[in-house]
Design a protein that fits this description.
19% helix; 94 residues; Ubiquitin-like (UB roll)
Length: 94
């Protein structure tokens, strides 16, 4: 089982749950189960083609899945999967 860490902005779609245990062999399978278990979360995680949204950063442990096998990245037992939405905005003081 993997532990999925749900970021604060997405917790409103999971009943304010901060982390979930999911049985999945890959990141893709874990995201699919999250989308099925929490339908309102699906549009936050997946684009119209069913692909993980580009603005999401997903880590297995401390490794960005983009540096591994993307959504095909395997989830070992006791893996920690962190979903981190990109944050935009801000300003530069001049």
């Amino acid at each position: 089982m993997a532990t999925v860490i749900i970021p604060t902005p997405l917790r409103k779609f999971t009943g304010n749950t901060a982390s979930l245990e999911i049985s999945a062999e890959t990141v893709e399978e874990a995201v699919g189960k999250l989308s099925t278990d929490f339908p309102d979360l699906k549009k936050q995680l997946l684009d119209e083609n069913g692909q993980i949204r580009k603005f999401l950063n997903i880590f297995v442990g401390e490794e960005d899945i983009r540096d591994l096998a993307n959504e095909k990245t395997s989830l070992p037992n006791n893996a920690v999967l962190s979903i981190i939405p990109a944050i935009a905005g801000g300003s530069i003081d001049r």
